[in-house]
Prior knowledge:
- It is built from 20 helices and no strands.
- It is an all-alpha fold.
Amino acid sequence: MVSTVSADVETRCVHKLFWRLLPFLFLLYVVNYLDRINVGFAALQMQTQLHFTDRVYGLGAGIFFAGYFLFQVPSNLAMAHVGARRWIAGIMVLWGLISCCMVFVRTGREFYALRFVLGAAEAGFFPGVILYLKNWFPASARARAVALFMTANPVSGVIGGPLSGALLGLHQFGIAGWQWMFVIEGLPSIALAALVLLALTDIPEAATWLGPDERLWLTGNLRAERERHVQEIGADLRAALTRLSGKLLLLTVTYFGITTTVYGTILWLPNFIHSLSTLSNFGIGVVSMIPYMATAISMVLIGIQSDRTGRHRLYLALTAFAAALFMFLAAQTRSMVPGLAFVSLALMSASSMQGPFWATATSLMSGTAAAAGIALINSFGNLGGFFGPYIIGAKRSSGMGFRGGMLIISAFLALAGIVSLLVRAFPPGQRYGPRLPSTPQH
């Protein structure tokens, strides 16, 4: 009877977590990701008007991740002390203002500078939300939660592709379409910051929208998970990270492969489509929806199946190898239909690594070690977001077109698949973590 009651409380609690937290966090990530990737569409006009070469654009697109790298760990540790609501609201206002300031770019150096500080401002958002999800969702529900949250990436492309393409045609008051695009797409971040203070709750213990029995089950479940991690790796931050260092290195290499592919593809996708077609800017925006829509569906399905089986590393490796193959095939194409098909499959497979990846990574850490470990993986791994766009731009400038960069990215994906098989998480517990009685034990 106690087991049945506990299972019912567990089901209700997890259901509320999904519906209360994820839709709003999803919306925030759509806005965040759009501010990050809309430079890909801006390049269709910006490169011509400002006389930027492919190498200049590739470096500017990628240098975002230099700022991201340097400020991610301190930003995530600050959020752990300040609280999620206030920290996320503050950095949203900051990156929204910086995105709007892209309207003033005239030189390559100004482009580099604003992309760098945009990366610094956004550095705390994604790892902060991953930490936030870890602090709220039981272990075995986490891959689904992360996968659903991260479908904001492709959804932002589905929304942002046609929107950005259309805004490029807006020329008013002497302001070019790409400048209007940055302003209009930067303002929602500032507006939504106020809602963060109202909609988010910092810790489960303060969640008045959970019933007393649900709150008791959740806090007890998460506490048991933290205690298990302390027994495994110790409570001291430095000692914990030292014991995790080998696994953190392997996870970082894997994540580097993911980000190299995702950002190398996304930030050059409009140019890639343009190189294979005669479509207008709006037409390119519409066609770019195809890989994003396929990616959104795949991420959810892989995340659900990964949670259902508990074999996160297997799904992580399989999607990495699939992405490597499709990127290699995309590098061999010279026409629109097969080129877009293989790029879509590569982006879909690489993005689907995210749910299993973060489920594996967060199963290793808790407490302050989780805040630091997640930020370390994300900051070093996201240097792939610098490398991917830059290597494609460099290879294009050298006369190799997209093929040279795609082959290099394919190799990094294959490496990510191999390395992911070497990472071993702690043995999974029961569904949603170890079940605790619905009444406290004395």
